Fold this protein.
Amino acid sequence: MLKIGLVGCGFMGSMHAACYKEIPGAEVVAVADIRREKAAEISGSTGAVIFENGKQLIADADVDVIDICLPTYLHTAHAVLAMQRGRNVFIEKPVCLTMEEAEILRKTAQETGACVQIGQVIRFWDEYKWLKEVTDRKEYGAVLSAVFTRLSPWPDWAWEGWIHEADKSGSMALDLHVHDVDFMRYLLGEPDSFTSHAVRDTRGVIEQIYTTYMCGKTVVTIEGCWDYPSSFPFKAGYRVKFEEGTAVFDSNGLAVYMKDGSVVKPEIKPAFTGRSSSGGNLSSLGGYYNELAYFVEKLQKDEPLLVAPLEEGIRSAALALREIESVGGAQN
Ligand SMILES: NC(=O)c1ccc[n+]([C@@H]2O[C@H](COP(=O)([O-])OP(=O)(O)OC[C@H]3O[C@@H](n4cnc5c(N)ncnc54)[C@H](O)[C@@H]3O)[C@@H](O)[C@H]2O)c1
């Protein structure tokens, strides 16, 4: 049994706890949150021991893995302590806020030999996994162009509003946008060039970004935004133009519009279906379940973490940070 210590029991920590409950061979045995009631909620359903804060859990809990679901500005310090303590580590995305932090993480992982996975969850989302597979095997020919979108109303759940402070989250251009930046890199490799344009709020913080990339001859555009009105439903999807057809994933599902006029509806077999032991619909756990199940399986089998290792999380954050720099910083 892989013993998990969960650090940060807010929005993502609760999601991770719900996933671990359904993953055979893993158990959340320790939880920490400076808001004790948040830790108590998860402890109530798992029996996990409660620690007052992340550093105390890392120092004292008897665990194999530290799973870090803290606000982004706290990731590096906690991940370093966890690796130095001899633990394997899962770090939510974006892995860190600066390239200086990235270097510290890289160095510590090398020195300690810790296995580190980053929460670049889109790589594990069924419709995006499908896109990666058909692209790799050139099922519809080469990719000519692609559009990815991730559009959200204002996120209002974060502890003390940390997510809206540019020096704590890096702004939406790091926090939300890194999902699609990462998936684009996974699909097509490092872009040769890019041009970004940002929309800012009255404080000068980026709330929306449009970036167009050249990956060889392929043109890719990503739009990310998280200050659409509260009545606006969250939307994420893609439109990918292949030589032989165009794949579209949106709120209507997945379809491929073929050059000959036919429409193909690929059958996606969710990695996990049915109802969870806690009563929720397992498919609602989506890629979060898949990424943690993968992490647990690889650690149990002592196999390398190939899909979203530390280095990939760092490279995706690095590209988002270069975009932010190109438009004058996360806040101006
Ligand atoms: N993969 C995704 O789709 C996704 C979605 C949302 C957030 N995230 C990422 O997950 C991370 C956490 O975000 P969130 O939305 O859960 O934030 P949140 O504010 O809901 O939760 C953070 C929790 O950390 C706790 N905390 C703060 N300092 C602590 C400390 N020293 N020790 C222990 N607990 C402490 C807070 O009390 C809070 O409960 C961020 O990096 C964020 O970018 C990822």
